[in-house]
Amino acid sequence: MHFLSTKSMILSIAAVLMVYSYTLAETYLVDSVIEFDQVQKRMQAGDTILWSEGNYGDVNLVLEIDHIYFLAKKVGGTIFTGSSTLEVKGDGNTVAGFQFEGGKIEGDVIDIYGNNNTIEHVNIHAYDSHYYLRIRPDCQYNKITYCNFEAKPETQESSVVQIEATEGLPGYHIVSHCSFKNHTAPPGSGADYGIEALRIGYSYQRMFISRTIVEYCYFEKCNGDYEIISCKARENIMRYNTFHNNGPAHLTLRHGSKNLVYGNFFIDGAGVRIKEGQDHAVINNYFDTGEYMAIQLQNHHYDPVDTVYILNNTFISGFPIQLGGTGDFPPGNVFLANNLFSSSFDPVSVDPTNTEIWETNAIQHDDIIPDSGFYKMQMNTIKNKYGLIEVGDVKFFAEISMTKDIPVYDIPVLDDDVQISYDIMKQNKTGEFAAFPGCYLPTRQVTLILYATAENTGPFYLYSMN
Fold it and tell me: How many structural domains compose the chain?
């Protein structure tokens, strides 16, 4: 596994953006809406619009053509304020390098209606708006990457980024390497204030297949709602993200079914809540949630939870797993296997339905082991140079035959590793460590490290080159 330094990443991305203006057929320099609209009428696929450096107020742009590059002339140097907005109605376009700072509008800052568009290295900060970015229904294959979404005003009770789902048309959108920071609610506003960092679908879209991937993103101080990611559609993957210092806010499978939470880090804030739906899986995650819950299954009447796989996760600290047994609609067919629990988890779970299946889970305890489905593992833990807890020397106290061939739902088309062939660091689970519990194989060849941090997500120009 290779990790780029922030400086290397900055240089490589900057080089790619610079190439746009030198290799494409025609380049047009603009600094007004009138010029922007005029050049669109004579552009061809592969052409570039460069917007001049500076601050611009009340700029409302509609990108209507296809397969062009719309770039800031100096990356990060074009700043839109006031009531500025961008609508992307064409297909196959790349928009990069802009900032939207401190504006105020009734609608959305960036609205995407087309297909196969890429929005990258865009910073939206302190904008008093409805959504910061919205992907409309009836479109597919849009990619949002290396963007920063920060400090949505407390007065706006709406999501920061909204991805809509469409009946009969999976979206296949990707949100990657983005940072979501400092979205907070007013004191005393309660759990459902409305500023979710990212929402996939609406409640009425819970039966629609989205197949959106959210990966390598960083979420910090996103407690404008107790749902950081609110998943309300089907067949989505949330993987390799970092959730840090978000208090009681958590990743929520709110509506929909067949969603996968894979390889994420939950640190000093709540973990995963599953409220409704079937065939969900929580695999290969690292939970060090402190005073907050790691996993909560809910007892809910609307679309009761059924068939949930909680597999190969590592639990360092946090409240016991809440199993949702209290009430008339308890979760069914909950399967927990190959997880690793530190000694701080005593008890491991609360509020059982007494129908859960526990198999080959390991627990770090000297003398206390739950009745069944667990074995004792003596191990020392070490904090590595990145502040993460790794397993050191290990001694097993039972013959281990790890649970295999668990029928996790395999999302079509998407690469979802439902056979759990890899650990959280993408190490192949073969050989002497094939049966090791938890999310990470202590091979000493690959260090446990966060994929997404405050320094390697979002636009590169927000960070120093030093």
Answer: 1
